[in-house]
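To the structural biology subgroup,

Please find below the input and predicted structure for Parvulin-like PPIase, which we are adding to the shared reference set this quarter. The sequence is reproduced verbatim from the submission form. If anyone notices a discrepancy with their own records, reply to this email rather than editing the shared folder directly, so we keep one authoritative version.
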Amino acid sequence: MSMSNKLRSHGKGVVVWVLLAMLVLGLGGFGVSNFSGRVQSIGSVGDTEISINDYARALRSGMSAAQAQLGRPLTFAEAKALGLDRQVQAQVFAEAAVSEQARRLGISVGNAEVGRQVQAIRSFQGVDGKFDREVYRMALRQQGYTETQFETRLRSDVARSILQGAVAGGVKAPEALAAAYTKYVTEKRDIAFAEITDADLTATLPEPSEDELKAWHADHAAEFTKPETREISYVWLTPEMLKDKVQPDEATLRAAYEERKSEFVQPERRLVDKLVFPTKAEAEAAKQKLDAGTASFADIAKERGLTLADTDLGEVSKDELGTAGDAVFALTAPGTVGPIDSDLGPALYQMNGILPAEETSFEQAKPDLETEAVMDRARRMVSDMTSDLEDRLASGATLEEMAKETDMQPGHISMAPDTTDGIAAYESFRTAAAKVTEQDFPELGNLEDGGVFALRLDGVTPAALIPFEQIRDKVVASWKAAQLKKLKTDRAEEIVAAVAAGASLADQGLLVSNATGLERSGFVEGAPATLLATAFDTKPGAAAVVAQDEAVFVVVPVKVTEADPQAADTKQVHDVLSTRLEQSMSGDLAELFARASETEAGLTIDSTAINAVQAQMQ
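Predicted structure (tokenized):
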């Protein structure tokens, strides 16, 4: 995440609730007690310091986001290779720069507002849904915060958001630019196209000589090289291997059902948007526009510098809506209610859909509960065996002895860079197999599903060019495929020249297909993905060659149709593009402001502190 992307994420308004939620979520997942001593910050912008704990949390949060995107665990070494450490560093210094400017300008919020926001955070509420000071203190203590530190940071974050909203809010996209983009995006084309087949060729594919084949083999060595293979012996144990030894009883399953009953018994829910206003009068004025049909909920949100994504509460139950629950759930069809007082002020609520209550009985849930219970118990059984397995390996037990004396199962695999079969489907195994040397003793490693493994490198077969005599047929096929594609491309170029001279595709004896009303974001079935893009990049009436893999096509744009700027669909595209342009421009302004603030206030970086934090992540 670049600095500009981070700043763009704040949007154009002061959405305090979102900011608070992000702040509370940012508390989790890192033990701040790991960082202590004389060095307390990684640097500063002016008088605003960045604590080592805040930097550590930002790193951990960035890694969690990257892991969610990749769908797998991420080591810190991998994160560094992706540049995540530098991105997070840019992010925290950019935030500090804006906070420093807010401090210098005297922008702040009072104690009453800070207290109100703290009490509204659900993570600090007790079972009765009300603010609980003991819960608050315990949550902060677990994350290494004092109440003063947390509330000071909260005050600073809100002030920064206010300043960013003032700097980057209210940006309007230039109409000429929005119109140009809209015209570009909504333009449609009719095209004619044809694939060049073997039957369309005017030249015959020649037969290669032995010398030509050998030269082709030598010149395209990468295509005919057998990759390095690593001969790996291993033993492994997974929860799946132990599941037959587990039989959960009825009482355990029923207890699991009761514990997770909220998953199986869903109350009736609503799809809801919420829009908060500074005053009740403004909320009532907006409601009048909605009732009169002169504005939509999206229009009202846009007036406040928001999008529907900013107002979306998702699927919510009656209880989750608090004071608005009765009014929203009284609606039997999509509609808007309000203004209703909320934690953040007077709000309008738009109900977009009704999701009926759902209940999964114990008997219906039992198969899934049983499977989960079995696998959970099997994972714990593997975990319980880990110490013994590690001790055996540390004492010099061979893989063969491990297979004989424990529940671990033996195996052997020839590992090439693209091997993903069997145990090689686990990334942790592939990583270990790529690093192991013949001098290494087997060590216990962890698999992604809770299993364990140990491996040994028996030998390495280096990458080598396969002798010509062994793969002559493959060389012939490769040579012919390349020559055939060249003949097709040459024929396509001849057709392009003929079209330029006034001929049509049909005049060339080709099997011509036609497609009408195509948009830039569309596709043409049976044609390369690049064909449509090429058609939009080619002048109407001219022809162009499109080659992908073994296929060669010729495409001719026949007609260009520009969208009616007054049409509802075109206006919608225009509005979406305008909003995106405004968001982009706002992000750019926020980024420039942060950079200017860094330059004005002065930036100091403690590389030793940064390295110390990163070392804890290894």
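Summary notes: Residues 188-225+471-561 form one domain. Confidence is low (pLDDT under 50) at residues 1-37.

Regards,
Lab coordination
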